[in-house]
Amino acid sequence: MIRTLVATLLLAAGIVHANPLYDLKPVKVAEGIYCSIGDLNPPTKANKGNVNNTCWIDLGDGLVIVDPGPTYEFAKEFAEMATKRTGKPIKAAVVTNYHDDRLYGASYYAARHIPVIAHKSIVEDIKNNPGKFRRIPRLLSKAEFAGTKLVTPDTLFDKEYTIKGSKRMVKLLKLSPVSEEHSDIVVWVPDVKFLFAGNILFNDRALNYTKNSDMKGWLEALHKIAAMKPAIVLGGHGGTMGPDAYKTTLEYLQSLQKQVKTAYDNDVDMSELMEHVDLSKFRHLKHAEELNRHNANDYYEQLDWE
Q: How much is the pLDDT for 278?
């Protein structure tokens, strides 16, 4: 009777699920590195917020999780899959920026006293962007969102942080003060030259240049990625990977910068801006049509403030 009551209460709270909520199919990226590729759409009821890429990296004596995901349940399912396949414990979880689709899942690791690591600027990013944490709870049921909390990472660093294992190390690097966001970092695995670039890099879908973004810093970060000569690059969104996977984002930003700045210098009114900006080269990217205008307008407004 007691067991039945406990099971009923847990099920009602959404902590126990008869079937997995997420259809996780991690792909092998390199030896000991597997990543789940998120949906290319914004968070919806259908994808349950699973729009970012999430990885596990085998250090030899344990695992590092990169970007915990959109909910407690997502993190739980991903962690259980990783530990079951490898037979190894999770040593740390890394968050590459403050966005809800990667940070909310940190609540699962925090509840288990597993270190959650991020750049120190994530504290201010969380504080200054409360609206970012409203969309996923609105989309999901209470059961689907159960256990999910907004947690602040407990291990913060400035320029570089190293996680050492028995067989390999993982380096967390801050490449510029601001790229898409202040808290953007990359994850570097030197032995296989694998770079996880988070939201510094978008593939298969258009990037989102926001009022928080910095063109100079974003381009600086991408040039530093190129200089590292990675063998495999994977961004925070999209499944395209390889040594040149950073180039689409770089070329998009360079084109956006050049055309919008030319229009601004020629006193083109923002209402006519898209008549002077041609980003059709990138029309193959999902959501390009709507995001091109948004990105051009936000960068134009930044130039106006400058």
A: 96
